[in-house]
Amino acid sequence: MSSKKSSDTPRDPASETYWRLLAIGIDPDKSKPDLYGLIFEGEHDVQLMLEGRIVFFTDPARAGELIDRYGAPLIADRRDIEKPFFWCDVAQALYFLSVGGIDTGASVLGAVNALLDLVKAAGAPIIDSRRNALHAIAGYCTMSKDVTKYLEEEGDYSSRELIDAVLWCVGAVVVKARIL
Amino acid sequence: MPLDKPSTTPVVPATKCWRLLAVGLDPDRSTPDFYGVMHEGERDVPLTADGRIVFFVDPARALALIQQHGGALPADPADVAKPTLWCDVAQALHFLSAGGIDTQASVVDAVNVLLDLVKASGAELDERRRLVLHSIANYCTMNKDITRYLEEEGGYSSDELVNTILWCVGAVVVMSRML
What we know:
The complex is a heterodimer.
Chain A: E1 18-25, E2 35-41, E3 45-47, E4 49-50, E5 53-56, H1 63-70, E6 78-89, H2 90-99, H3 107-122, H4 128-143, H5 147-154, H6 159-174, E7 177-179
Helix pairs in contact in A: 2-3, 2-6, 3-4, 3-6, 4-6
Chain B: E1 17-24, E2 34-40, E3 45-46, E4 48-49, E5 52-55, H1 62-69, E6 78-88, H2 89-98, H3 106-121, H4 127-142, H5 146-153, H6 158-173, E7 176-178
Parallel strand pairs in B: 1-6, 5-7
Antiparallel strand pairs in B: 1-2, 2-3, 4-5
Helix pairs in contact in B: 2-3, 2-6, 3-4, 3-6, 4-6
């Protein structure tokens, strides 16, 4: 699964709110995302939820219908749901965090940022060491694509700590998910 | 996922066989979220495809998936008409968070299955997590009173138990293949 943002819709959250499509990649051998979610992007980003659980679905064509059905209280100026805007390519991020490499598609940054938002929506209390590890790699990847350099030289957290944190986040999100 | 299961942890089988595994994640669903297939023998191993643990939503597909991905083992008997293995993560997390009397052995079943699935995933379960899971599984083999474990007898806190389960779920999910 490619991990780069493919939407060309410009973001202007100061003046407009959007419903955006989130793509989630788990299986590296699949050519398409495993799951999709929806994020209301405004002053704060809010996941589409149902009865306190984060909504995921497998057919991206259902995005509009699901917003109509479950996201009615959140009125967005625009819907950018034809293609994924946010990417959480867990498979690709874990690959880079395991073996390093040049993350040209910003897979690690995209996945970590999405997971932090999803964990927050899940209401799962994340311990400081995990949060700090994820913020550290996200901060680094905002400025650099060289994950090898982080793992071997510059980073304060090991590959294992980073992978552990990602796995915990995936579990915390999955147990609060509703797949429709 | 409400558990209307006919049995708790199955006894060690005398022969090798395939069993249907039901996985519950969403407590509000009346049916399991996913199914898997486990091959019970000297070791319990899940059905995998290209090294990834196979899950599916329609239990009627179990036999076909065994035939397709079971390698040399499809000839073994298959008991897959109904789930005989349960991994009700939602229920287990409820008990490990809030305590209670786990009359249906949700915790021990979920932990035992997760241990098998994590092993199959190839994720390295560190010693601390292994001890946490073995502690609660051993306790629950003899006791249904989870409150007592959490408040009196257990060596591990609710937070540590829940966090360990969440890590296991993540480790399994990232090595899964939905078919």
